[in-house]
Design brief:
globular; single chain; 0% helix; mainly beta; 116 residues; 11 strands
Length: 116
C-alpha cells in the first residue's frame, strides 16, 4: 500500500511561480517513477511531468519550458516547479506513482488557482 501527500497549491497571479511537493510512503520500488497529473475537468487527468527511476524527465507539450520536475529532499519525494503560470494552468494537481506490483496510486490532489 502506498500513500501520496501533495502540498504547495494555492492562489497565484498570472505569470507567477509555484512549487508543488509530493511525499510518497509505503511499499514501493527503491526509486519509483513519480509523476504529476492535473485535472481541469472531473475525471480527465492529463500528465504534466514525470520523473523515472533513472531521473529521466518527461513533460507535456503544454508545460514544456515552464515546468521542472525533480526529486525532493525526503525519501520518495518529488517536486514540481512551475513558472510563467497562466489561467489555463488552473487545475487540481495530483501526484502519482505505482507500487512494485504495478498498482496505480494517487494523492488527494492540491488545487492550483492561477487568477488575478
Amino acid at each position: 500500500q502506498v500513500q501520496l501527500v501533495e502540498s504547495g497549491g494555492g492562489l497565484v497571479s498570472p505569470g507567477g511561480s509555484m512549487r508543488l511537493s509530493c511525499t510518497a510512503s509505503g511499499f514501493m520500488a527503491e526509486n519509483p517513477t513519480l509523476a504529476w497529473y492535473r485535472e481541469k475537468i472531473v475525471n480527465r487527468r492529463e500528465l504534466v511531468a514525470a520523473l523515472t527511476s533513472d531521473d529521466r524527465t518527461t513533460y507535456s507539450d503544454s508545460v514544456m519550458g515552464r515546468v521542472s520536475i525533480f526529486r525532493g529532499s525526503g525519501e520518495h519525494a518529488v517536486e514540481l516547479q512551475m513558472n510563467a503560470l497562466a489561467p489555463e494552468d488552473t487545475a487540481l494537481y495530483f501526484c502519482h506513482t505505482k507500487d512494485v506490483w504495478g498498482t496505480n496510486y494517487w494523492g488527494l490532489g492540491t488545487l492550483v488557482n492561477v487568477s488575478t
